[in-house]
């Protein structure tokens, strides 16, 4: 099975072991090889490449992978059922560990079905080897699943037909004979797999005979059973039809996982030999060495056996497969010697390569296999396929003098004949020897014509070699009846063929052929097939076409050859990083994003499983340390294995982009970007379908199609490996950076792994390599498709791996998905993404709103452990505000409880110590600051700001964190009781006075009403700090302020830079428009310096005088940075420093086309930073007085602005929907009149109404639904001099009397709003 995606370079299968080499040898002898079909266009022949490495042959790879999975299942079954026997075992799934933990308590072993179920699940996980016991021993007995198999002699089949396999309906599964060398036959109905099957005649005559429900198939099975002397059936077992495990994992398909392991096949082979021995066949000679016992390690003795099951022949070889050591059938040997010679036409040239099928006493043509030259690999084959040797290692020239595989030191699990016929070679068509008969070469047969005695289904290169097709560039000719293909080589070795690279034209051609033939893989992707929808560029040549010959049509065999060649090509190219990069790059640059996506779209609709698995193998090379890291002498670098073919960062990034485009192409093809966004929003909630009241509505069928692909195991496996590679490569970069000695070495590490992807997604990049021409609508849709689907894939991996904890792994797939989301969030403007598209509501809905954010404050994030709140953009603003306020409330509660506890201790000490009243008062006064439960401010209306400054100055942090209570105007007789409304009134008055432009600390723009610092203000810095403290205190207590600051201030408060024009557009719109025109000016209409007449300086108007300074580039050295001139704070300081106007430059350079970009950047920097730096730094210190610095990281500038200022737009319709009534009915005449009057108010009157009821003229963050607006009945007024409406601002309640008519209500309400000041009961 596959190694763990998070450690792909560590584990895996050692394909270099002797037993694995024996498996490869057997498969090389028997597996079907792909060859270029005869009707392929000539352009493909130039790209054909022979394969001499068995690991690079797709049929061998698939069969060996299935074999390894079965071995792994067998080990887990042994571990679950028997245990390892170690008394210190700590593996939870091991029976020995379970027995030790149970102690003396009884414990039940898993039954056969349960063991198989759990073993299949454990073997299917990433890095399954980590779940095996280190001391696991081989099984003591054959698999228990064999107990259900019954071997019946053929005589019984003839006597009792009801006992035949077909009549019982449950036959053991196998492909052909179970063990041809031992003469056994295990019959089964064909099992449908996920891969597509051929239709009708494509399957072949032999499969037609064995089709379920076919009488001919039943007769064929009985004939086979009679020929072999026995048949195998399964004991009928009653199962509970309601049991899911019994009806799924108790089927023949899953039992085959145990039946077809080497140990099980050897056991069944021994039983088969016993039956044949009892049969007493006269034409067979057997020895005592024919039956061998299974060794402890699962392999057999070194001797190799081969034979013909049907004839009873059995031959034993020792080391040399061509040397006969055992007895043979003398009758067949005599028949071969007595056979007449083959006649040849005198006019035909002798074909030195032609060979005839002969009995086993003659040397058979062997497939030459090149395994010895491949050095042992430190990475598994699946993890790093790029390290495998291929014919390209010699510059594209195949070595014809390859050596045959060594067999002297190998240990075959069983004879090659058994290997090749086992059922675990699923989907691999194996060669079956036809009946031996002389071959008569016709007088006019060409060199390349195939052996007429060959099976109609077989395309084995061994048979092709026997018939003369031996050129290493020759193509398959099995479907060309009567046509010949010239061969220009006499080499007898026939290798599988593949294309050495792909491109857009080849992908289109191959996919068209497969779709026309109907041999594409059956899959669940939508749409199931794709036709060309691009306009090819004129200079790219004509599309590829298949060759045709008169009288020849496409046959089932030709369609099968194209399918095999397609699979081999896709596997060979896509699983090799070097070939994949060479296929989709041009002049060192990747194809444009849409062309690459189109290629992947077509391939995934033809063979999605093959594409995903091959790219997964190629992605294993991303985990090989880059060469700069391998060359370091650091002890840390020595921990990583050395790899010669390691990818650089740029190569790794391009490979990453190729694989990610394949994932994007797997999603259903939609033609509306709004559907993409709606589906993404639905899935962000963790939903597959959108229910009633959902955020978005889309067709159920489309939602299910998305669910199918985002839960596909192969696609998810590829995504998990890619995301893991992101963090791994960045870890390599950090190690390299920390160990470099010079800047040049640091620069050698290269770009980030995601840089090539973002370069592709930059659709304004004019340097992109555009291969195919798509329409403008397709290009526009693609710009939205790729970023959204990448976010969906990252979200799918996160949802799949999340365990419910806010602390997540940082170096696995989850951390890599977060890294991709973070990188895309930082480039969201280039990717045309909004903030809402990054949100994942699923996590917030399942985490504690109070405890989780408080625990995050003490969490220390590392490379291996991250917290979800480190990535606040995946949460919506309302959730972040609730987390922010939960942190503030937690700190407030803790400060309140500490003060309460201290006060209780003081009281206890006073009582126990019998202190006098004087001493008690002194003690209370000394500990007043520490023991006070509230932060109490006594404010007079005449001096609101001065009283606030005096009482907040030099306050301790613990005092500021306590709940706030304000006594406003009590000296004047006001009876206000502060439950929130008095606080709101206090802050409204204090902030209005503090930001008054008359004081010279802040300036207010006349157009936008934005407030900003006055550069070089004469006000002392401590006043700015106290104003910042007032803002902080309001935010800490959950109050909004009647202020309007530009977003630039909030960006600076959160530590974000102000460098772009859109950062200042809301505060200085005229300036932003002028600078934009400067940047966009075309000098065809005039020179910049002549049209704009701007000098390279920054100037402000302060106290009626201009202060100007020439702007300088930003300095890295702190001592060299520019400082804006400050006015003296005190009058006596005016003579100590020169006036700011005295430093104005006499002359400054003009802004030209060459420096206008730098001018705009410097101007923004001087406006937002340099000119107001002292004032802002003081304000920032005060702003952080009450707030936890880390809690501010949860907020964006927009969210912080809404928390401080609230929402200034008041929607009366929304307010009416969320209003509540006490004593009124919503349909009452007075209520209808009230809303009719309020609806016609202008913005100023709307703010007055809201302030009258809630003490704030702003809607709090989150909208009207987060505020209280209650209309309570306050009696009836019939006279003209009745009561005015009043309110309880603390509770958001409007006390509205019932007036006699609408006009009276309008007058009374307007009078109340215009004269609202002061409190009764607040």
Automatic annotation (TrEMBL):
Give me the stretches of Polar residues compositional bias.
182-200, 276-320, 344-363, 468-486
Q: What is the protein name stated in its UniProt record?
A: HECT-type E3 ubiquitin transferase
Q: Could you tell me the superkingdom of the organism this chain comes from? A: Eukaryota
Write down the top EC class of this protein. transferase
Q: List every stretch annotated Disordered.
A: 155-231, 276-402, 450-494
Q: Which PROSITE patterns match?
A: HECT (PS50237)
The answer to whether keyword Transferase applies is yes
Residue span(s) of domain HECT: 956-1322
Coiled-coil annotated spans: none
Reaction catalysed by this enzyme: S-ubiquitinyl-[E2 ubiquitin-conjugating enzyme]-L-cysteine + [acceptor protein]-L-lysine = [E2 ubiquitin-conjugating enzyme]-L-cysteine + N(6)-ubiquitinyl-[acceptor protein]-L-lysine
């Amino acid at each position: 099975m596959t190694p763990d995606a998070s450690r792909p370079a560590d584990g895996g299968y050692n394909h270099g072991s002797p037993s694995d080499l024996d498996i490869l040898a057997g498969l090389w002898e028997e597996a079907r090889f792909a060859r270029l079909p005869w009707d392929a266009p000539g352009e493909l022949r130039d790209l054909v490449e022979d394969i001499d490495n068995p690991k690079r042959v797709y049929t061998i790879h698939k069969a060996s992978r299935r074999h390894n999975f079965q071995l792994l299942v067998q080990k887990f079954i042994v571990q679950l059922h028997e245990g390892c026997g170690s008394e210190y075992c700590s593996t939870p799934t091991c029976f020995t560990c379970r027995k030790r933990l149970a102690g003396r308590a009884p414990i039940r072993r898993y039954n056969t079905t349960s063991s198989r179920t759990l073993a299949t699940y454990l073997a299917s996980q990433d890095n399954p080897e980590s779940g095996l016991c280190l001391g696991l021993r081989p099984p003591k007995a054959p698999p228990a699943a064999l107990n259900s198999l019954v071997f019946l002699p053929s005589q019984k089949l003839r006597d009792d037909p009801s006992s035949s396999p077909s009549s019982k309906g449950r036959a053991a599964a196998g492909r052909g004979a179970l063990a041809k060398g031992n003469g056994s036959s295990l019959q089964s109905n064909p099992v449908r797999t996920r891969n597509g099957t051929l239709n009708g005649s494509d399957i072949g005559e032999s499969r037609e005979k064995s089709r379920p429900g076919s009488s001919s198939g039943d007769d064929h099975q009985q004939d086979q059973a009679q020929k072999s002397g026995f048949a195998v059936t399964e004991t009928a077992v009653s199962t509970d039809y309601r049991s899911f495990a019994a009806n799924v994992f108790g089927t023949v398909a899953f039992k085959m996982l145990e039946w077809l392991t080497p140990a099980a096949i050897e056991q069944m082979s021994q039983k088969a030999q016993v039956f044949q021995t009892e049969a007493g066949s006269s034409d067979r000679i057997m020895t005592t060495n024919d039956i061998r016992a299974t060794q402890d390690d699962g392999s057999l003795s070194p001797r190799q056996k081969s034979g013909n099951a049907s004839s009873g022949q059995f031959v034993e070889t020792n080391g040399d497969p061509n040397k006969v050591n055992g007895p043979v059938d003398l009758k067949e040997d005599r028949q071969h010697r007595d056979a007449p010679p083959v006649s040849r036409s005198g006019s035909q040239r002798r074909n030195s390569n032609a060979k005839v099928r002969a009995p086993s006493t003659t040397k058979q043509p062997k497939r030459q296999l090149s395994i010895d030259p491949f050095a042992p690999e430190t990475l598994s084959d699946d993890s790093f396929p790029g390290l495998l040797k291929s014919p390209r290692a010699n510059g594209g020239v195949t070595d014809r003098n390859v050596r045959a595989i060594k067999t002297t030191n190998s240990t075959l699990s069983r004879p090659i004949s058994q290997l090749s016929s086992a059922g675990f070679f699923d989907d691999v068509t194996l060669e079956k020897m036809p009946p031996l008969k002389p071959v008569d070469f016709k007088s006019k047969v060409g060199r390349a014509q195939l052996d007429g005695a060959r099976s109609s289904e077989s395309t084995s290169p061994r048979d092709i070699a026997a018939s003369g097709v031996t050129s290493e560039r020759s193509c398959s000719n099995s479907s060309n009846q009567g046509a010949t293909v010239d061969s220009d080589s006499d080499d007898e070795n026939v290798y599988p063929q593949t294309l050495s690279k792909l491109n857009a034209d080849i992908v289109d051609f191959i996919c068209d052929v497969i779709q026309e033939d109907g041999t594409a893989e059956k899959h669940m992707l939508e749409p199931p097939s794709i036709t060309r929808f691009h306009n090819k560029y004129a200079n790219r040549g004509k599309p590829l076409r298949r060759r045709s010959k008169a009288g020849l049509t496409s046959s089932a065999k030709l369609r099968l050859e194209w399918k095999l060649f397609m699979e081999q090509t896709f596997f060979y190219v896509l699983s090799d990083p070097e070939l994949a990069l060479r296929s989709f790059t041009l002049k060192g640059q990747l194809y444009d994003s849409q062309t690459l996506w189109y290629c992947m779209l077509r391939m995934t609709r033809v063979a999605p499983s093959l594409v995903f698995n091959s790219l997964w193998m190629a992605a294993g090379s991303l985990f090989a340390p880059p060469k700069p890291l391998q060359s370091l002498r650091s002890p840390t670098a020595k921990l990583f294995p050395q790899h010669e073919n390691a990818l650089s960062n740029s190569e790794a990034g391009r490979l990453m982009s190729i694989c990610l485009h394949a994932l994007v192409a797997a999603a259903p093809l939609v033609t509306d970007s709004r559907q993409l966004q709606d589906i993404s929003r639905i899935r962000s909630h963790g939903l597959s379908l959108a229910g009633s009241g959902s955020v978005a509505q889309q067709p159920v069928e489309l939602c299910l199609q998305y669910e199918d692909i985002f839960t596909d195991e192969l696609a998810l496996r590829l995504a998990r490996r890619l995301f893991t590679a992101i963090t791994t490569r960045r870890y390599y970069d950090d190690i390299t950076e920390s160990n470099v000695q010079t800047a040049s070495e640091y620069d050698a590490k290269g770009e980030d792994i995601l840089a090539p992807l973002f370069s592709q997604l930059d659709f304004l990049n004019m340097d992109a390599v555009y291969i195919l021409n798509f329409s403008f609508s397709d290009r526009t849709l693609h710009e939205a498709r790729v970023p959204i689907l990448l976010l969906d894939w990252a979200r799918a991996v996160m949802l799949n791996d999340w365990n419910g904890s806010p602390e997540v792994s940082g170096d696995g797939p989850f951390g890599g998905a977060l890294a991709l989301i973070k990188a895309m969030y930082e480039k969201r403007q280039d990717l045309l993404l909004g903030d809402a598209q990054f949100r994942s509501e699923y996590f917030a809905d399942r985490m504690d709103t109070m405890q989780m954010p408080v625990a995050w404050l003490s969490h220390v994030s590392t490379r291996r452990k991250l917290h979800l709140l480190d990535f606040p953009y995946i949460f919506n603003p309302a959730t972040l505000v609730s987390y922010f306020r939960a942190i503030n409330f937690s700190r407030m509660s803790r400060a309140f409880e500490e003060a309460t506890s201290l006060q209780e201790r003081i009281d206890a000490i006073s009582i126990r110590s019998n202190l006098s009243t004087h001493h008690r008062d002194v003690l209370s006064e000394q500990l007043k600051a520490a023991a006070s439960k509230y932060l109490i401010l006594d404010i007079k209306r005449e001096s609101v700001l001065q009283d606030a400054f005096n009482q907040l100055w030099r306050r301790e942090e613990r005092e500021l964190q306590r709940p706030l209570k304000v006594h406003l105007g009590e000296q004047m007789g006001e009876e206000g009781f502060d439950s929130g409304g008095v606080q709101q009134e206090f802050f409204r008055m204090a902030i209005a006075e503090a930001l008054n432009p008359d004081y010279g600390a802040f300036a207010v723009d006349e157009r936008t009403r934005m407030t900003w610092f006055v550069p070089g203000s004469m006000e002392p810095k401590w006043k700015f700090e106290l104003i910042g403290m007032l803002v902080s205190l309001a935010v800490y207590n959950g109050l909004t302020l009647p202020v309007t600051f530009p977003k630039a201030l909030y960006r600076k408060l959160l530590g974000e830079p102000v460098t772009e024009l859109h950062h200042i557009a809301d505060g200085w719109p005229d300036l932003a428009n002028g600078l934009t025109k400067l940047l966009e000016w075309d000098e065809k209409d005039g020179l910049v310096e002549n049209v704009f007449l701007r000098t390279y300086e920054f100037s402000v108007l302060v106290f009626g005088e201009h202060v100007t300074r020439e702007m300088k580039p930003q300095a890295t050295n702190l001592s060299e940075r520019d400082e804006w001139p400050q006015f003296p704070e005190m009058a006596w300081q005016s003579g100590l420093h020169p006036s700011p106007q005295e430093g104005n430059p006499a002359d400054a350079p003009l802004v030209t086309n060459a420096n206008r970009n730098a001018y705009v950047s410097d101007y923004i920097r001087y406006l937002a930073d340099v000119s107001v730096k002292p004032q802002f730094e003081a304000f920032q210190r005060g702003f952080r007085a009450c707030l936890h610095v880390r809690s501010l990281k949860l907020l964006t500038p927009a969210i912080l602005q809404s928390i401080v200022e609230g929402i200034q737009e008041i929607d009366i319709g929304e307010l009416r929907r969320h209003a509540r009534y006490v004593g009124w009915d919503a349909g009452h005449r007075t209520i209808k009149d009230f809303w009719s009057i309020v609806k016609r108010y202008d913005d100023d009157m709307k703010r007055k109404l809201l302030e009258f009821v809630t003490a704030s003229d702003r809607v709090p963050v989150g909208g009207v639904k987060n505020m209280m607006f209650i209309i309570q009945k306050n009696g009836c007024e019939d006279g003209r001099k009745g009561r005015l409406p009043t309110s309880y601002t603390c509770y958001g309640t409007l006390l509205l009397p019932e007036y006699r008519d609408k006009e009276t209500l309008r007058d009374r309400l307007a009078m109340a709003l215009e004269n609202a000041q002061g409190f009764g009961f607040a």
